Amino acid sequence: MLRLLRGCSLSSSQILKTSSLVARVSGRQKAGTPCVQRAPLQNSPSFFLRPWRLMSRVGSEDGGKDYHTSSCCFKKKVPAVPTKPPPTLTYLPDSPKPALYITLTGLVPFVAPPLFMLMTKTYLPILAFTQMAYGASFLSFLGGVRWGFTLSEDSPAKPDIMNLACSGAPLVFSWYAFLISEGLTEAIVMVIMGFGVALHNEVFLLPHYPNWFKALRIVVTLVAFFSFVATLIIKDFYPETGPKRPIQAE
Q1: Is 197 helix (H, G, I), strand (E, B) or coil?
Q2: What secondary structure letter does DSSP report for 123?
Q3: pLDDT per position as a tens digit, 167-190
Q4: Rounded (10°) angle between helices 211-237 and 184-200
């Protein structure tokens, strides 16, 4: 208690000394005399330094822990870019060798008619008709593949209305192409539309096939499309020779 009273008396005396010193300095400045003497730093009141001393004492009592603040750093979170699956055509080398060889062999009836007509520089309706007939038959085969794919019990494609109806769509285009085969151009366009609808159903609407089979389907559709387009172009640029339809035996 005595120490506390002594500290209070000392602080009050220091405050009185500093106030008297400030009054003297201000009086000299008013009188016009320059103030050269400055109060040393040791004689400055310790009242203004007490908060820092208290903080140092607290730090020593806590075991010398340093308390500091750092500037907040707000970093923008970079949104995670979703990884895209590889294109379907990259799975083509993964297809079984028998399926790959048979599929490539099955493209010959698509490519051979326009290639032969281009070499002879003539348009042969009989070859264009065989090409259209093969394309229509291929559409029926694709519908049967979808139907058979749903029959297995462990198949991911169930025999529901969606799968079975989509398997019958290529058959409708095939049948209608034969029905209007008198107009060969319209029949070829109908087969092209059937290939496009079948590819959309099998790759995008019903994604249950293996990736290698989807790759084969894309290759077949592209080759059939360009071969039919080549036949239609040849029809407009080269003269027509030969019968329009196969000759029927009497």
Answers
A1: helix
A2: B
A3: 888 989 999 999 998 899 999 999
A4: 160
